[in-house]
Amino acid sequence: MTTMTTGSDTLTRDALAVLQPGFVGTSAPDWLLRRIGEGLASVGLFGRNIATGPQVAVLTAQLRAERDDLLVAIDEEGGDVTRIEVRSGSSFPGNLALGAVDDVDLTREVARELGRRLAECGVNLNWAPSADVNSNPDNPIIGVRAFGAEPALVARHTAAYIEGLQAAGVAACTKHFPGHGDTNVDSHHAMPRIDVDLDTLHARELVPFRAAIAAGSKSVMSAHILLPALDPARPATLSPRILTGLLREELGYDGLIVSDAVEMRAIAGTVGIERGSVLAIAAGADALCVGGGLADEDTVLRLRDALVTAVRDGELAEERLADAAARVRALAAWTQRARGDVTAPGAAVQEGTAPGTGSGIGLVAARRAARITASPTWRPVGSAPYVATFTPVMNIAVSSETPWSIGGELAALLPGTASGTYGPDSAAADVLAAAGERRIVAVVRDEHRHPWMAAALDGLLAARPDTIVVEMGVPRATPRGALHIATHGAARVCGRAAAEAIAGV
Q1: Which residues does 115 contact at the CB level (< 8 Å), separation at least 6?
Q2: What percent of the chain has pLDDT over 90?
Q3: Is 188 tagged catalytic?
Q4: Residue 102 and residue 107: Cα distance in Å, rounded?
Q5: Which of 1, 6, 79, 215 gives 159 a disulfide partner, CB atoms 3.0 to 4.6 angstroms apart?
Q6: Dihedral pair phi/psi, residue 466, rounded to 5°
Q7: For helices 297-312 and 10-17, angle between their N-to-C axes, nearest 10 degrees
Q8: Among 14, 132, 260, 446, which one carries the catalytic annotation?
Q9: Residue 19 phi, psi (nearest 5)
Q10: Per the confidence metrics, is the pTM higher than 0.85?
């Protein structure tokens, strides 16, 4: 690595301004504070940076002591993808649950409350909502993160979510443009490809993004996906035809364009993060998300220097980099203006708790989202059951630290509840042996995508027809069991709603 210039240089400041890096630790490392002083305009928070609400407020105050207009971003979708409640599970159901209820006022209220709690902690940019139309039921990365599979439904809830979040003074970042719903490949691992014609793209994928633009989304995040109908050579994040031609010029979007994480394999495993960062800015991106996997000073300096070198070599127009940096600073200025009526960071957060640990609107929404199918003989469970959770390979967007299932929530209502976790090598006999005489509650996630999970349920229901089934993913499989509950997500409040249905409270 070669350091090109000093931190006082305008070109270097612009190169730093377009980066949105992460870091390790629950307080800011010295290197990060130095780089903020040199021009870094954004920082991303991840689960590793969060212990409690007050701690996050102290952290963001520490960061803003270096730069008051700093953008502090987080990937807080609610539902399965939570950072602020990474170790407890979210107090808010995710998009699919809100889409299942289909009450835009409820979606707006949930997003406003989520935004309020983020603002309390000093977060002012949320990499959410997902505006993807989950048209492919085998999609391994979107699923319950989408409002649904119908473009108009996704569009109206995307707009409501943006309105609610931004009313709390937190900028929305609508993702993953131009739509990640019709994929069966995870761009964290490889390059997804969507082979649809332009008419389909406009009638399906782009409908929610048009609604997001009309709703005033302050930022839009690009996807690392290949759409040959638009650009046969470059994924959206690196494509001038998609970012500038389609998003800027055709759709008329004038806000901040943020790349999805450049260390994802779709970029890092093809052109590399340095080259990918230069190509993304040249294509029309204004900010580069990095830090979920690479969270060190060297990564920041490598990307900074790659951008500076590209300008000096004539590969990247200096005006394009300056324009990108100006858009970052413009969003930072908006967040400062929007901060006026928001409670000061940490003021309403109790020590030892994370924001959102109460019930409130999130639990109300989760209860409304639960879809219950009961047999004629169903009666609520009155004694401690056995919860068998069938766990697939997790979506990489969901932190491995985040608990899911309903064992804890059910134990709070039915003390003595026991639990076990089962994978692809487990059989129904394993569950039956562990459960003994207890009533069995089988918790699944996307049963329709996992034949081993469906086979385990077959065996359980054959042996114990009174088994209760809780589907916490996309409910595509036919409901079965003495009681079937589709929660439309695995947030903590979704587990609570299912537990209440089982216990009859």
Answers
A1: 126, 164, 165, 166, 167, 168, 169, 170
A2: 84
A3: yes
A4: 8
A5: 215
A6: -85, 10
A7: 130
A8: 260
A9: -95, 140
A10: yes
